[in-house]
Each structure stands twice: as structure tokens, then as C-alpha cells.
Specification:
2 copies of one chain form a homodimer. With 333 residues, chain A is an alpha/beta fold. The first copy, chain A, has 8 helices and 14 strands. In chain A, the strands form 3 sheets. A 6-stranded mixed sheet of chain A has the order 1-2-4-3-5-6, with helices on both faces. In chain A, helix 2 crosses helix 3, helix 4 runs antiparallel to helix 5 and helix 6 crosses helix 7. The longest helix of chain A has 17 residues. The mean pLDDT of chain A is 97. Chains A and B meet through helix 1, helix 6, helix 7 and strand 14 of A and helix 1, helix 6, helix 7 and strand 14 of B.
Chain lengths: 333, 333
């Protein structure tokens, strides 16, 4: 295993130390229980938004903590759910009294631990709501997941709900908005290579040199099928078809097209993917009015991509455009 | 070779099509000769800044085209210098009459082709200055380079000179500033893995599973030595020592610390590198007042890192902080 680390057990702790040192203007980090929070939290008269999950998907979620997005993020060990005490402590630190929304990706450990955390917060008199993101159309059930997995729509929900919270919306409003983003978002991904979890020390899965994993999960969970490597354009067609037909999106819909790199895929390839995805979207009558291209939800050094479509409207578009100031996404500030 | 491409010969063209489709608010792309330019160029009464080089290092340079940074970028084939007609056409497109600065990384092909372009522009009556960046302390001469290679300081120069040009400085002032950034910046990198150039189809170099290339170039050029993989902290010590001692930086100096990923290195590892690099800088008495952490100068999917230190002062710091709006770097706008 070749990694720029000191020891597998210190990866997350040391990375967080480096992260807060680099971005002290934006974030603070607490350890034991561990969470990243906005430097200026709690923000008065604002619903707090917290997400979290296993580490190894950076910049998700810690890179999205800041003005206009998340108030806190709870990182677990690599590819391992954070524990309820992390979310409980984070909620206590960032809730200004207007309540907290937990945005949870649909993996069994995350769902259970966020639910336990919500119970603890409520028992303490806190107001908390949870929304589970399950936008991955690849498979129905999967390793670690009942139902669909939560992937790309998660960060779109974090951005959009963050803007709504910043604008003063209530907890119920921000929760409903998060459910709407999840309902209107669909994703699918594929991998060219596996990744290696530091404390495991060997690749999560084996993939022959001429094969790809189609519909892969962000922890390397199996997808729909293995197949021979194909040209990028064919891969994009195969990713877009189930995304577009699942919602279903309708001709004339305005959409956000998010092309994500899984970590080891060069930017130049992501633009090749974006080019074709845009063409397929147009052919389906969709109007791509917003986009995001980059490695935002990663699986360590995995090579591959995922595509997310989100149906936009007069409510969602201005919230997407609203200013955001985090280490991984920033505009308008 | 596993890549998300259609064919090696179309990689750059298709990526540029995707890039301009994604960022039409910021950039325009011209083909044959090929360059990326600011959507609003030429910008009146402003020195134009152009850079370029082989593709495969994204987001450098195309990702830095926009307000407050580059007016144009000329991409060659992967790891291959752009041709003089590209820089000539780009200069014609973006020069508002106040002259053009060419920022050139020190590789033999780039230096020759940018120089030829400068001659062509001058023959046409244009005002043009060139600055060659050679900040890599790893080796004296290298494959494709006489003298030191140009690496991390390049984008710092692009940002800082871009801000100065935006503020109305003259061509001579912006040129001098670029030379100063180069004089005050030092870099060094290392690789855990090779990368594969699409039209070559096999890894640029072979590296045993337990070895690293110390002092690697951004095209996979040999560095100082090969050695066994070490813990990240030891690698950082070994990268920082020649950087700090070369200038030499002095105790009390304010510096910008730039930790760069070469493409295949997860963000979590870059923060582990940053954490230690900051510690080493502090131990040397340096005051890290600005930083940049991310994959900004890449070598396709190569795993590895480079560290750049830039000595700051009352002139450089405000220019670094000035607003920038490009697809890869944006703040304050």
C-alpha cells in the first residue's frame, strides 16, 4: 500500500489537524468526540445543518463547512460511520436554538448512528430533523445499504439547504427542501480501479485491467455489472439513461448537471465526461442551466466518475446560486 | 491503459469542448490554433497575461483563465509544448494595447515556442515580455530542461501578476513582479506512482511497489533519487529541507505554503502533508500567513505531492488576496 500517511490509525486525526491549520478562517475542529464546525458557529437565528459519514470521501463533508452550507461535519474513520456522540456534540456546538437538520446518506451505519444522535438531542430538549439521501439509481440494495445509496445529491442538498438556512428559513422549511432535492436528484457512478482503505492495506476489490465496475458505490460496493472498458462516450450514455428515465425527467426540465470525479480521475477526463453528458441531456430535451465539474465526493484514490442530475426550479436555482464560502466550494463571497 | 477517454488523439479537443460548455460564463475556447481566453477579453487598459504548456496538468493553466488571473492559456497535446501560432493567436485576441506578459515554465520546448511566439508578436508591432519560471530545486538539469524546472511557483505567479494587471500596473511592472515571485519561490515534489500519457499507452516510468521517486518532475522526469516508501512526515522533512535552505528563507520571513497534489493523491493525504510542512516551516522560524492546499498542478493520475514556499511581503500579500474568478481558483467575487 502506497500512501502519503504516517500510520493508518492516525490518518483522520492528522488530516483534520492539517485541515484546520489551513482553513482556520473558516472552520474549527473538535476532537473526542470529533467534528468540524464553522468558525463562527453557532450562528444566531439560523437553522443549523450537520452532515457526516466515513472519511475518505473528501472534500465531502468537511470541505463544505462554512457560510452558506454546513454548520458542522462529523467524520468517521475511513469508510466508517461516525458515532452518535459526534453528532450529538456537534449539534450542541452549532444549534443556535432554531433547530438542526441532519443530512444523512443512506448507509445502514450512518442511518442508525444519526438516528441515535437525533434521539439523544431530542431527549436533551433539542429540535432536530433528519433527511436521508438515497439518489443512487444503480442498485436497490447493496453492501451496507437497504434501498438506494446516497451519493452526489448529498452535496447539492447541503448547498441548497445551507443557502435556505442562511436566508432564515425554518427547520421544517429546510427539511422539506432537503427532501425535495433528494426527490428531484438522481445519480449513478462507475469505477476504473479500486481504492485501498488505509487500515485494510489492500484494494477493496479486484478489477481486471480491461474491466470496469458499472454502478459502483462510493466505498467500492458492487454495482450493476462488470463489463469491458468502453470509450467514455458509451460509458456516459450508459450512466445517463437510468438517471434520466428513473425520475423521470421530462423534456423542458431545467437541470443541474454534476460530473464528479471519484478521486483518481484527472480533470481532463471529467470534462470529456461533461461534454458527452451535456449532449445526452440536451438530446433528452433537458436544459442544463447549472453545473458542477470536479472531484467533490471521492472514494480515496479510486479512478472513476459519477453523474448527478438535479431538476431545478424557481425555488432551487437561486438557492444554488446563493453565496457560499467553504474550503471546497466558494462563490459570491 | 484505463482512462475515461474516447481516443488518445481527441483527449485535449474534447476536454476543451467540455470545459467551455461548463464555464461559458468565464471562458471562450478557440480551436486551430487552440487557446482558452477570458470571455470578456480583451480587457481594456489592462496588461494581458498568457501562459500555457502541455495538457495533462489541469487545472493548470486553463483553469486559471478569468478575472484576476490569466487572460489566455495555450494547451499543447498531453505533456507537449503548445506551438508558437497558439500563443501568437492568443496574444492577438487578448492584448488590449497595453502589452502582454508570457509566463513560461522552464522546459526546453515551452521556452523555445514561447520565444518564437514573442518574436512573431513583436514583428507585428505588439509589446510582449516573457518570464521563465524555474522554481524546482530538485535537480539542476533534467529531461527536457536546461536548468531548473518550472513547477508550483507558476500558478502563484499567475495569480499575483493577474491581480497586478487587474489593478492597472504596466507591462514592465507586471514582468518585474513575475520575476520577483519566481526569485522568491521554491518547490520540490515526489511521486508514489507513475502516470500514463494517453497517446503512449503505458506508464511513463516504472516504480516498484515499495519505492518512491524523490524530486520527480511533473512529466515524470527523474528526480534526485529513488528510495523506499517512508512515512509522510519523513517525506515532508526531506522535501522542505532543500526548499528552505535554497533561497535561503530566513527566520521571521512571511511565506505562502502551497501543498499540491499531483492528481491521484486524496485530499486527506494532502492535509497530512500540510500539517507536517507547517510544523517544519514554523521550526525554521517561518511565518505561514497564506496557504493553498489542493491538486492544482497535476501530472494526470500520478500519486504524489509537491510543496512550494513563496516568500511574501507587503507587495505580494495583497495581490495574493485580491479577488479572482476562474474555474479553479475563486475568491472575493
Amino acid at each position: 500500500m502506497k500512501k502519503l500517511i504516517n500510520s493508518p490509525e492516525n490518518v483522520v486525526h492528522e488530516a483534520l489537524e492539517g485541515m484546520v491549520a489551513a482553513h482556520a478562517d473558516l472552520i474549527k475542529v473538535q476532537f473526542d468526540p470529533t467534528f468540524i464546525m464553522r468558525a463562527d458557529a453557532p450562528v444566531k437565528n439560523k437553522v443549523a445543518i450537520i452532515s457526516g459519514g466515513g472519511s475518505g470521501h473528501e472534500p465531502m463533508h468537511g470541505g463544505f463547512v462554512g457560510r452558506g452550507m454546513l454548520d458542522a461535519a462529523c467524520p468517521g474513520a475511513v469508510f466508517t460511520s461516525p458515532t452518535p456522540d459526534q453528532m450529538q456534540a456537534a449539534t450542541k456546538a452549532v444549534d443556535s436554538g432554531k433547530g438542526t437538520l441532519l443530512i444523512v446518506k443512506n448507509y445502514t451505519g450512518d442511518v442508525m448512528n444519526f438516528e441515535l444522535a437525533a434521539d439523544l438531542v431530542r431527549a436533551d430538549g433539542g429540535q432536530v430533523e433528519s433527511v436521508i439521501i438515497d439518489d443512487d439509481v444503480a442498485v436497490k440494495d447493496s453492501t451496507w445499504t437497504a434501498g438506494r445509496r446516497g451519493v452526489g445529491a448529498t452535496i447539492l442538498a447541503e448547498k441548497i439547504c445551507g443557502a435556505a438556512a442562511e436566508a432564515g428559513q425554518s427547520l421544517a422549511e429546510v427539511r422539506d427542501l432537503c427532501q425535495k432535492v433528494n426527490a428531484q436528484g438522481r445519480s449513478m457512478g462507475m469505477a476504473l480501479t479500486s481504492c485501498t482503505v488505509p487500515h485494510v492495506g489492500k484494494p477493496t476489490f479486484d478489477l481486471p485491467e480491461d474491466e470496469i465496475e458499472f454502478g459502483v458505490g462510493i466505498h467500492g460496493e458492487p454495482g450493476r455489472t462488470r463489463m469491458k472498458l468502453k470509450p467514455a462516450d458509451e460509458i456516459v450514455e450508459m450512466l445517463m439513461e437510468p438517471i434520466i428515465s428513473d425520475l423521470p425527467y421530462k423534456s423542458g426540465d431545467e437541470v443541474l448537471l454534476f460530473v464528479n470525479g471519484l478521486g483518481g480521475t484527472p480533470q481532463i477526463e471529467l470534462y470529456i465526461i461533461y461534454r458527452k453528458a451535456l449532449e445526452v441531456a440536451k438530446r433528452a430535451g433537458l436544459k442544463v442551466t447549472r453545473n458542477l465539474v470536479g472531484s467533490y465526493i471521492t472514494s480515496l484514490e479510486m479512478a472513476g466518475t459519477s453523474i448527478t442530475l438535479l431538476k431545478l426550479d424557481h425555488q432551487l436555482t437561486p438557492l444554488w446560486d446563493a453565496p457560499v464560502l467553504t474550503s471546497a466550494l466558494r462563490w459570491g463571497l
